[in-house]
Structures are given as C-alpha cells and as structure tokens.
Amino acid sequence: MNEWVTAMQARKWMKKNESFLPSWHAYVGSELGLFDEFKSARTVEAVSEKTGYSYDLLSSWVKVGVAVKHLKKRPNERYRTSKRRCSTLMGQEQSPGVKALLKEMMELHIPTMLKYPTILKSHERALFDHERHGEVVAETSALLEHFAIKKIKKMIRARNVDTIVDLGCGHGGYLRKLAEEFPDVRMVGVDLNQKVIDRARVLSDDFSNIKFEVGDINEWEPEDGTKVDVVLLHNIFHYVHPDSRPDLLEQMYSYVEPQGVVSVITPINETEHGEAFSSAFNSFFVAHSNLFALPDKKELKEVTAHSNFDMYDLDPIVKEGSWYTFWMSPSSPVKEWKQTQEMNDQERSFSSKQEDNKELTRSS
Questions:
Q1: Which of 23, 91, 210, 327 registers the highest number of CB atoms within 10 A of its CB?
Q2: Residue 66 is part of which domain span?
Q3: Residue-wise pLDDT tens digits, 196-244
Q4: Do residues 226 and 217 make contact, with C-beta atoms less than 8 angstroms apart?
Q5: pTM beyond 0.70, yes or no
Q6: 8 A C-beta contact, residue 249 and residue 309
Q7: In the 8-state DSSP scheme, what is residue 80?
Q8: Is residue 119 part of a domain?
Q9: Alpha-carbon distance 234 to 325, whole Å?
Q10: How many distinct structural domains can be found in the chain?
Q11: Whether residue 15 is found in the same domain as residue 147
C-alpha cells in the first residue's frame, strides 16, 4: 500500500482518539481532587508542593485540561478550573453519580475491552468482582433510575400499595426517594453484597418504613409469606444467566399480588436506539464469566410470557444507552382489556344467537 495512504489512514485513527481525552482528564481530576485544587487560579508548582504529586505529570495533566477546556490559563502561569464545565466534579456540588460513572468506565469497562484479544484467544473470561466494584455500580444504576422515578411514582399513587420490594437495591437510593413521598408504604431492599447493604442501612437510618436484607434475588421471598404489591427489578438481567431468567420471574410470580406490578429497567440489545453503546455494553458483559448478555425484545416477551407475566408499556428512558423501562404484571391492563373484549364478544354472540332463535320461532 502507498506510504502516503497508510500515513493518512493512521492520521484519521489518531484524530478519533481525541474524544477519549476529556473523559480521561475528568477521571484523573475527579479521583485526585485536582479540580478543587485549581478552584482558584494557582500555579502547577504550588499544587504540586501541596499535594506531593510529581510536577511533570501534573503539568502534563494541566496542559490536557487547557486543551479540552476543563482548565483555563491565567496570567503568571496560573490555571483555574472551568466551573461551567467541571462544577459536577468539584466540592459540595460534586455529583457522586458522575464520579461513579467515570470510575466505572475507566476502571471497569475500558480495561476489560482492552483485554478482548487475550480473552478471545485464551477462552478465559474475566471475573466481575462484586465486592470491589459493587458500590460503584450501585451509584451508576441510581443515575438511570432517576429517569423513571416520575413514571413509577405515578403508578404507585394510582394503586393501593402496601409493600414495595427492590431486588438488587444497591445503596437504597430509589427506595429513599419513594419513601419520602410514601412514608406509610412498607419497603424492603434486597442485595447480594453485604457492604452495599451496610451502606444502604446507614444512608436510610431516618426512614422507619425501609429495611434491608442480604439475599440472592433468585431465591428471595417475603419472610412472612405475604404478597408484594410492587417489585423493582432495575438493571438486573445482565447478572442473571439467560437460562435462569425464567426461574427468577417464576419465583417473583409466586409472591407478586395478582394485581401487582413489576417495574423493570434494563438496557436492551439490538434496538433502534443507542445501538453502538448497547452493543459495546453487551461486549463488556459477555467478556465476564459471571455477567451475561443483554436481553433483546424477543427474549423479554418470551420469558415474561413463559412466567405468566404480561409485559407492557415498553419505553426508552435513555435512548443513547438503549435503556428501557416497562411493566410486568400477572394481570395487566392489556390482559384485562383482552378479557373484557372476549366477554363482550361472548355477550354479543349470545345475544345474536338469541335474536336468531326468536326469528326462527316467529317464522315457524
């Protein structure tokens, strides 16, 4: 191949790497608190002396920050954080969700994707460490749930709800948001990770209507044998082997009220929204021996039907990531509508036969 063509092709790939730099820079600054260090205009030397970080490495990070507009250069070789661009990574305004998202991407997703050639050749998949990364994943999951909370609150207000169970509850943030509006509803959070549950209990200490249990969601059921009105099944399917998903739903069916509702949030594979992200996310999951492929719409319909749930109201909540929300119920509005239609059809058929019989009687 012509050397000029080769060089130009390499140049194109090099330019594509630019989009990675803001994420890398934000991750380093967030992890080390550097955006706070440069909250007011300071020299690299001053920050290096205070923090103990190497001057040359810190100086290189600062130069990248200026290039991606996270930092602004000021007179006398001083630099200041751009509050407009980086306020969510600074001080009291710092968003734990944004920091967790960067941490998950840089420490989990990208390292695994870089190991793909080794994994493909060796057939030895990575092992997801729930103890090490469980809390970070709990934070990022809470970000996604934010987009569905209005829909869920509306559903709860429209029903006579006594109990809510959150399977894979993480730090319990979703239950706390619901408990603020529904203080008389009994709520239970279930998670496999003891550290995550311990943290959830501390954060939820002011809510007397929430309790937390360490447990396997595939086997969990209410201690007193009562039925549950609402179950939250958020970002769970990729932790459950596809062959075991029907068993999980059947287990849930055994304790969900006939008129109860299961709220599901999950990324879906092969959809018309966020195909690039969902396929990359799916690649991350299948590269692990204890994480599993994302469901597609066909599988979701099949597994819910197999478990005697009706699935309805499938809506994208984060199109860029192909995250969807939907309801499952033993007795959904769709099923009730169909049953009503069948009853109406039967009544019309019966009335029609009666009219035919009357007409025959009059004719004879």
A1: 210
A2: 3-94
A3: 899 999 999 999 999 999 999 999 999 888 899 999 999 999 999 999 9
A4: no
A5: yes
A6: yes
A7: E
A8: no
A9: 9
A10: 2
A11: no
